[in-house]
Design a protein that fits this description.
It contains 6 helices and 32 strands. The protein has 488 residues and is mainly beta.
Amino acid sequence: MKLKSLLFVLVFALLSSPLFAQPANPTTAPNLTLTDLSGKQQNMYDYLDQGVTVIIDIWATWCGPCINSLPSLEQIWNTKGFSATGDSSVMIFSVEIDPATSNEAAIGSQYNIPNPIFDNGHTIENLGYNTGSLPTYYVVCPDRAWFSQIGQINNPNGLLNNVASCKPVTNNAIDLRTSFNWYTGEESFCNGEGITPKMWVKNMGNTTITSFDLEVGQSGTILGTTSWSGSLARYESANIKFDRVGSFFNTAIVDLNIVRPNGLADAVPIDNGMQVQARQAQTFDSLNYTLWLNTDANGAETSWDIKDHRGVIVAEGGKAAPYFSNANLTETFSLPGGGCYELTFYDSGNDGWNFNPSTGAGSMLLQPTGTRDVVADLNGNYGSEKQIKFEVSGTYTDISEELTVRDLTVFPNPFQNETRVSFDLVKSDRVQISLVDITGKQISSYDYGQMGAGYQEVKVSAENVASGMYFLSVQIGDTKTIRKVNIQ
């Protein structure tokens, strides 16, 4: 009974554990086609297409908490199931997952399990359903949204609450959906940067979506728009990464809103937006860093890198030489100089640091060497990748960089009505300067056009601008430089 011994510790722990529930999974629930003990083939999507919600009960005949949960499932069947007293709105699949057992029919008869029982449940583990924790329950809605719960249930309320949260299937032609807990993109930015949004988007309409726009804003003001094109069929979802957009200078609540799917209006626009808290990256003085790694049970899935402000990798690990599993590792490295850096952790298994006790958990801690400061502290399931921005004070010293501008200064600063920005252009380039307040709102902008190589000086007006702290965003070609200014 290899499976039984693997699961015993976890099942025993769940005897006294509180119910563990997760929000709706952003992906589409995989279909199940199984033959029950009576020899009838059951297809889950057939029920969903009829507007029926399906509860999947993943269990084993020797699992005490699974057996103890049967009375609660019976209550659901008697009120919501295909019984004499039920309203036929819920189907229950009891999926036994231990291939070594053969007493499913006897247990079903002993406990009068009224719903279909399947004895080949081990075949579903590669579809994305968790079979490593018993009991596990999935509530699958007609629109293919799905919720999961782990642990013995002593009453049916938790499952029924998830059943009640299922949204009715519509026949809308254009109907996209996203949710606040479906955001997987950047949550930090270096001063003056935008963010690179990434989030799950699901097509609930009956028309394939091939394009839409994402508006990024703050406090009701749209700061930028980025576009997506591809193909999302009905009920299909995708974790979409967009181009960098916006410009932020302080921790901010960022509005993300999907508009114009296929160039048309969405039937349910209230489901198209979310708010994300974007935090200004921390700044550190050190160039030397230590990365503490505790790999999970799938260490070879994990890798990481750090990119500088140009997107060039300056440190990395786990790629050329994969990490061992369940190992404690320490890596040290130095950065080339000051500036904005992006730390990205990758997991090819799409489960981050696996938190499942049956397979082992992992964690990561990045610190400036010899300090207690924390750049990043990451654990749990972060999906396929996680980005964290941080800044290092000082000047970037990589002499291989092709410089665009040298000796950029703002004088006078502080100033009242006008200041001068001087710089030495390495080559002829377009120069644009914007005055931005601390919320990221653009106060004024100047386009000086193409300027020749060599020393240049331009004037920036601040007439009729309230006193306070602002930022000058100097865009020279593809290079943006931020300077803090004080208007008196």
